[in-house]
């Protein structure tokens, strides 16, 4: 060769190494490692507490709070029918109460997601939980203001009934006077209490989820999320169990109203569970304050930009937030995913909110048993499904197309289960003496009981002597007397009852419905539970799509925006939609003092078709949008690998390649040297040697 190598040793291989500079991101967290990664608060950072500075410890505490957070919602759902009877309002009003906790995500979801993601996130979660504690106590205030209901007891309404507490055909006006109704005040307090609960939920889900995702490796996220979501489902289970337990006690636990839980007049101790949940949430909120800003060895996703962020004015930060929002709005996968979630939530959440009421009506269960059947049975299946889904993703690491395709298949089972449940029905109690229980001209009044001046203030069903005809109350059956033998109660001298041939006679009537038997309750619960089990396997995959289709620094903002979108388009509309369809199915309203209260009797078939049909329609449309996500899924990148630090190059070769291939010798051995080695030496060699040949 004409060019000679200027080297002291001839014919030797020369490789010039350039020291790899230590990367300086200007991250102030590096100077504050002890403060930001140590458990404690203020000057309290004991050594024994530092063993809890791990993602696993946070997962446990966060999951417990998730259980209690979920229990609040389902406890309220289990008590809805009781609250409607207690304060005499329509299902539409229930819808207004239910949307109260969705106002705060709309107003503050984006702000909390953007700014909360840059602050001490565990303490933001703890603050939200403390607000949740206040909301629990506020929800119980109406009981302490108005006390237990005393209607149709011997102490309060002797002008309406005799000492037996029933309304009879006595040819007397039943409503001689009207007390001031507590409905408006009670509803306002319940609305405000649920509004406060929205702040706690917003901080918990928006900030807590992104904090956990930033604290673990991406490949482990499916297992952590699967565990978290599965444990959270203990919350709805706990809420239904707690409502079932509390509603078994009368509103005043130390008072005996003289009738049991299956009597339509029964008002359970709805307020008690809110007090229990309030104390429990407060206790487990305290450890959340002590968790560090980040865990040892983990950097905040926004760490490289933190110094610049701190020097910006609030106006500049708001402009940056607006830019981030524009990025999210131009993300087609995120938009389609949001839309699918909105449609599914409208159908699924609306359905399960009305499920206890549906079971009370369709299967003639008490409020306590309806909460029991509608909750734990299906939620256990959901827990198993979520755990299985998370473990499967962790083990098999499916490609984006496979994972999103699995979401479509799994969610389709919810649609199938709803259609099958719509076909399950029970015999409708025959209201003899009325036009028809399924026709719009349904009327409890007839020629026989018109003079009885009966009201619909309280539903006390009685069964006629034919064993199949049910009457709304002893008054509507034309009864004037009452007798009790042991535990058996019956009414005498009923002039409007029917015999087996359908003719009106004067006879006796027994308390409660006529022999009502339905063998389909277990089948209904099993079908619904299987649908939940299969569809819940997509829960972890849905969470990963949300977190992985955006930039890491936008995760909290995406979750905050998601809360706002879900609240505006799902959690606010569904109570109104389902409240309207429930009221549209009502046949007999509670009426007193010229006002309409809660519904006593529903058109069973109409309610069944509307509830299941509307829910199945929403779920089907959600599955259609999931197909769009599946089509766009190849755009999802880096599902399971952690984000790397900015790569530095040494002569065109990434440092990470050097390390991963066993150092420089590994690069040579793997063949990188055949093209990169020359450029390596040429680019890093001192100026005077740049034209020399390495060999």
Cα(first) to Cα(last) distance is 10 Å
- Unreliable sequence segments: 1-5, 8-13, 20-33, 152-164, 301-306, 435-439, 644-695
Structural class: alpha+beta
Which geometry do the CA atoms define? elongated
Share of helical residues: 40-55%
Proportion of strand residues: 5-15%
**Radius of gyration using CA atoms only:** 33 Å
**How much is the average pLDDT?**
76
> Helical element count?
24
For the sheet with most strands, the description reads: 5 strands, antiparallel
Number of strands: 9
Instruction: Identify the strand order in the major beta sheet.
Output: 2-1-5-4-3
Summarize the structure.
The chain has about 700 residues and is α+β, with helices and mostly antiparallel strands.
Keywords:
alpha+beta, five-stranded antiparallel beta sheet, two-stranded antiparallel sheet, 9 strands, elongated
Could you please describe the fold and organization of this structure?
The chain has 695 residues and is of the alpha+beta class. It contains 24 helices and 9 strands. The protein has helices at residues 33-37, 55-87, 91-98, 103-116, 121-139, 141-146, 183-215, 221-232, 234-246, 272-289, 306-311, 314-329, 332-362, 367-374, 376-396, 400-422, 521-535, 539-548, 555-571, 573-584, 604-632, 655-660, 663-669, 673-684, and strands at 462-463, 470-471, 481-485, 488-498, 504-511, 586-592, 595-602, 649-650, 653-654. A hairpin with a 6-residue loop joins strand 1 (462-463) and strand 2. The termini are close together. Residues 1-5, 8-13, 20-33, 152-164, 301-306, 435-439 and 644-695 have low confidence and may be disordered.
């Amino acid at each position: 060769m004409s060019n000679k190598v200027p080297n002291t040793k001839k014919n030797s291989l020369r490789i010039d190494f350039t020291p790899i500079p230590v990367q300086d991101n200007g991250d102030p967290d590096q100077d504050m490692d002890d403060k930001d990664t140590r458990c404690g608060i203020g000057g309290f950072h004991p050594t024994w507490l530092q063993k809890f500075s791990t993602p696993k410890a946070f997962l446990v505490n966060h999951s417990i709070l998730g259980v209690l957070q979920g229990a609040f919602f389902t406890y309220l759902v289990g008590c809805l029918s009781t609250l409607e009877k207690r304060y005499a309002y329509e299902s539409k009003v229930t819808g207004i109460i239910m949307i109260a906790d969705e106002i705060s995500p709309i107003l503050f979801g984006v702000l909390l997601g953007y700014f909360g993601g840059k602050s001490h996130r565990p303490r933001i979660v703890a603050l939200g939980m403390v607000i949740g504690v206040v909301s629990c106590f506020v929800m119980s205030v109406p009981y302490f203001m108005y006390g237990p209901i005393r209607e149709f007891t011997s102490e309060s309404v002797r002008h309406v009934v005799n000492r037996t507490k029933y309304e009879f055909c006595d040819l007397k006006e039943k409503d001689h006077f009207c007390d001031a109704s507590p409905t408006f005040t009670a509803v306002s307090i319940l609305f405000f209490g649920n509004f406060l609960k929205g702040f706690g939920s917003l901080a918990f889900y928006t900030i807590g989820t992104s904090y956990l995702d930033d604290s673990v490796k991406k490949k482990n996220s499916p297992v952590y999320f699967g565990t978290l979501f599965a444990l959270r489902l203990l919350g709805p289970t706990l809420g239904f169990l707690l409502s079932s337990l509390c509603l078994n006690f009368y509103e005043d636990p130390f008072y005996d109203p003289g009738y049991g839980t299956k009597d339509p007049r029964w008002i359970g101790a709805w307020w008690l569970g809110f007090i229990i949940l309030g104390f429990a949430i407060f206790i487990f909120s305290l450890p959340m304050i002590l968790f560090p800003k980040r865990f040892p060895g983990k950097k905040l996703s926004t760490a490289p930009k933190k110094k610049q962020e701190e020097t910006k004015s609030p106006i500049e930060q708001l402009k940056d937030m607006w830019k981030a929002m524009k990025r999210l709005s131009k993300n087609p996968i995120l938009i389609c995913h949001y839309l699918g979630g909105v449609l599914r939530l409208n159908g699924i959440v609306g359905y399960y909110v009305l499920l206890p009421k549906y079971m009370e009506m369709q299967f003639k269960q008490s409020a306590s048993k309806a909460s029991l059947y509608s909750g734990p049975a299906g939620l256990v299946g959901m827990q198993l499904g979520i755990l299985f889904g998370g473990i499967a993703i962790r083990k098999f690491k499916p490609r984006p197309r496979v994972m999103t395709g699995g979401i479509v298949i799994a969610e389709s089972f919810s649609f199938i289960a709803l259609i099958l449940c719509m076909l399950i029905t029970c015999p409708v109690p025959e209201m003899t003496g009325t036009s028809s229980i399924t026709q719009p001209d349904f009327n409890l009044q007839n020629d026989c009981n018109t003079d009885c001046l009966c009201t619909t203030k309280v539903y006390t069903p009685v069964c006629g002597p034919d064993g199949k005809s049910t009457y709304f109350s002893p008054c509507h059956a034309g009864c004037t007397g009452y007798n009790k033998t042991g535990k058996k109660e019956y009414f005498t001298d009923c002039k409007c009852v029917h015999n087996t041939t359908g003719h009106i006679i004067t006879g006796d009537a027994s308390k409660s419905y006529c022999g009502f038997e339905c063998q389909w309750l277990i089948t209904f619960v099993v079908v619904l539970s299987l649908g939940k089990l299969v569809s819940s396997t997509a829960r972890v995959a849905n969470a990963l799509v949300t977190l992985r289709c955006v930039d890491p620094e936008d995760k909290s903002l995406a979750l905050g925006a998601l809360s706002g979108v879900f609240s505006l388009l799902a959690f606010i509309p569904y109570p109104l939609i389902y409240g309207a369809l429930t009221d549209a199915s009502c046949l007999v309203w509670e009426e007193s003092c010229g006002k309409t209260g809660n519904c006593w009797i529903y058109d069973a078939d109409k309610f069944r078709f509307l509830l299941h049909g509307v829910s199945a329609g929403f779920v089907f449309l959600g599955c259609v949008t999931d197909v769009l996500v599946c089509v766009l899924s190849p755009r999802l990148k880096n599902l399971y690998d952690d984000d790397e630090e900015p790569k530095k190059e040494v002569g065109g070769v990434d440092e990470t390649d050097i390390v991963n291939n066993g150092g420089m010798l590994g690069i040579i051995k793997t063949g990188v040297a055949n093209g990169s080695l020359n450029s390596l030496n040429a680019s890093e060699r001192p100026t005077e040697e740049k034209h020399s040949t390495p060999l």
